[in-house]
Design goal:
It is a single chain. The chain is mostly helical. It has a single domain, classed as Four Helix Bundle (Hemerythrin (Met), subunit A), CATH 1.20.120. 85% of the residues lie in helices and 0% in strands. The protein has 5 helices and no strands. The longest helix is centred in the first third of the chain and has 54 residues.
């Protein structure tokens, strides 16, 4: 009799653990969905704003926004594959270099332009290069 009672308690506890695990998995999936939606929304906003600023020929500001879109795109790519967002540029670059070499080459090539945008003006041709890369990656990755 006592053994039966213990078995029933054990089964009840295991059932509760399973319910708790399922609940946690659902919450994590919901959170992941919200994170992805947020990144995609940022990409849309950055590219839309960049296009508007580009039209008024402020290529420096447009370039900065295209870079923000690029970083969000790269974060989305990492998030989809690894399940987390890099915490800063250094971590993003390390992950890209190790696991996403095609994107690392783009980020590494153009990052100095982003850094210089704080002190120098960006020419239209340079802005066009960044813009084209952002648009190409969005299309290739089927983001928008």
């Amino acid at each position: 009799m006592e053994k039966e009672k213990i078995n029933k308690e054990r089964i009840k506890m295991e059932s509760n653990w399973k319910d708790e695990e399922e609940k946690q998995e659902k919450e994590e999936a919901d959170e992941a969905g919200e994170t992805e939606k947020s990144l995609i929304n940022n990409i849309k906003n950055f590219t839309s704003s960049a296009s508007k600023i580009y039209e008024v020929k402020d290529y420096t500001s447009a370039t900065i926004l295209y870079f923000k879109a690029l970083f969000s795109i790269l974060d989305l790519i990492v998030f989809r594959k690894k399940g987390f967002i890099p915490k800063d540029h250094s971590e993003r670059f390390r992950i890209l270099e190790k696991e996403f070499s095609e994107f690392y080459l783009i980020a590494d090539k153009y990052f100095p332009i982003y850094q210089s945008s704080y002190t120098r003006s960006i020419e239209k041709e340079v802005c066009d290069e960044i813009k084209e890369n952002v648009e190409r990656i969005i299309e290739e990755q089927e983001i928008l």
